[in-house]
Design a protein that fits this description.
Helix content is 31%, strand content 21%. The protein has 5 helices and 7 strands, in the order βαβαβαβαβαββ. It has helices spanning 12-20, 41-44, 58-73, 86-95, 114-119; strands at residues 4-8, 29-33, 47-49, 77-82, 99-103, 125-128, 141-142. The chain has a 7-stranded parallel beta sheet with strand order 3-2-1-4-5-6-7. β1 (4-8), α1 and β2 form a beta-alpha-beta unit.
């Protein structure tokens, strides 16, 4: 059983997700990502490759994949750094009563991402790093950048 799934898009979202899990050696976690970059061998067994979807009908396929993935992995918690993949996985996680945490990108300074705006109403926790975003995401938690 996987204790935590870290769901993210490739690129900066994946880089941020890898930073978030540093120091979690005692927790059994896996990444869920679409279009994975070239990965070092020591992390390949921690990757679940999801189907890619943009804001189109493939989100349904991604949602169905998320249901299957969550059923197989049975995580206690789902953490996501976005982007679009956060929405179908978050919805699926809520159906399984899995706690969901969304960490908004630190590059979001003036306006939250579309995924954060959609997800903030049903995620258990949403963290932002700029106080101005609290105006748009009143349920979010502000965390000072380190």
């Amino acid at each position: 059983m996987t204790e935590m799934l870290v769901v993210c898009s490739p690129g900066g979202h994946f880089s941020e997700a890898r930073e978030l899990v540093k120091g979690l050696e005692d927790i059994n976690y896996k990444f869920v990502i679409h279009l994975p970059p070239a990965l070092p061998d020591n992390i390949k067994n921690q990757i679940i490759i999801a189907p890619h979807a943009e804001r189109d009908w493939r989100l349904l396929l991604q949602f169905l994949f998320a249901l299957r993935c969550l059923h197989q992995e049975r995580p206690k918690i789902l953490v996501t750094t976005g982007a679009a993949i956060a929405v179908p996985f978050g919805l699926a996680a809520k159906l399984f009563r899995i706690k969901v945490i969304y960490v908004e990108s630190p590059t979001r300074v003036k306006f939250p991402s579309l995924a954060a705006r959609i997800c903030h109403t049903f995620y258990d926790r949403l963290y932002v790093r700029h106080k101005g975003l609290l105006e748009f995401l009143p349920k979010a938690n502000f965390v000072q950048n380190q």
